[in-house]
Amino acid sequence: MEYEYTTFQAQKISSAQSRDNTSPDNFAQKDISKEENPATATITVNAVEIPELTEQEQSDRLFLKRKVERAFFEAGKALMELRDRRLYRSTHATFEEYCKDRFGYNRSRSYQLIDAAIVVDNLQKCPQFVDILPTAEGQVRPLTKLEPQEQQEAWPTAVEETGGKVPTGRIVKDVVQRIMERTQVPNSYQIGEVCQILAKDNPELRGKGGCWCIVVAVHDFSCTVRIWDGELTAGLKHLKSFDYLPVECQQMQEICDGVPQERS
To answer: H-type helices in the chain, by residue range?
Structure first.
């Protein structure tokens, strides 16, 4: 009898649960995905009103936006001051070693940022100042090949060609190339001519400014020259002839030829 009572009780509980499943609350929780077509189901989305920016918020946004855009410029200025004041000297022997250790910048990247800061400073002094300034170092890099007054011409031209927006590095490069082609003069140097290297505005020639060299190949707008430790290619504006006589150039050539023999 105890077993029968237990079975009856279980059936009663099961029946009660079955009735409960048809209650309004359970019906609301019931999975209806099999009864309704998902494609025709109605989804209610509550609209959220986004408040307009206040004048102060708009001012803050503009300030922060310009701060982000000028990050490369500020980095270049800071690197230049670290280098010029030799503030690295207590921990590192050279500026290049300091940048590599502290910032992960190789020599080329450090000087790219420094050169970019110099260009942006120059653009800010432009008589025909434009509100749109470079926002990335890559946009400035082509301008480093130009003289300061040419930079002030090239950047507004690139901005105009972009419809008043910040131009890409490619557009700036195209403008710079056109200016360089316009201002280039025929190469009058001759093989064997003795020249002085002018390193101004050319990071690749740093450490070689003022050194003498001998022209070994003449190109349209550059020369390949030989110096004490090898050969390099320099643009015409980075060379200055000593105007030696042919016999003097020959003597310098003999001296240059003898340098490797003395080192070997």
So the answer is: 2-20, 24-29, 55-69, 71-84, 95-103, 107-124, 137-140, 148-161, 169-183, 246-263
For CA atoms 137, 138, 143, 144, the dihedral sign is positive
Residue 238 backbone dihedrals phi, psi, to 5 degrees = -105, 15
Q: What angle do CA 233, 115, 65 make, to 5 degrees?
A: 140
Phi-psi category of 192—alpha, beta or left, where left has phi over 0 and alpha has psi -120 to 50? left
C-alpha span between 78 and 102 (Å, rounded): 13
CA distance 4 to 151: 101
Name the region of 142 (left: φ>0; alpha: ψ -120 to 50; beta: rest): alpha
| 126-148 per-position pLDDT tens digit | 766 567 899 999 999 999 989 89
How many CB atoms sit inside 10 A of residue 142's CB? 23
pLDDT tens per residue, range 152-204: 999 999 999 999 899 999 999 999 988 887 866 778 899 999 999 998 777 77
What's the rounded Cα separation, in Å, for the pair 172 and 160?
11
Look up residue 248 and give its two tokens: 């003097």
Task: Please state the φ and ψ torsions of residue 15, each to the nearest 5 degrees.
Answer: -65, -40
Beta bridge partners of 124: none
What type of residue sits at position 60?
D
Beta bridge partners of 212: 196
Alpha-carbon span 225 to 214, nearest angstrom: 5
Choose among 249, 146, 143, 148: nearest CA to 195: 249
pTM (two decimals): 0.53
Helix (H, G, I), strand (E, B) or coil at 227: strand
Q: How far apart are CA 176 and CA 168, in angstroms?
A: 12
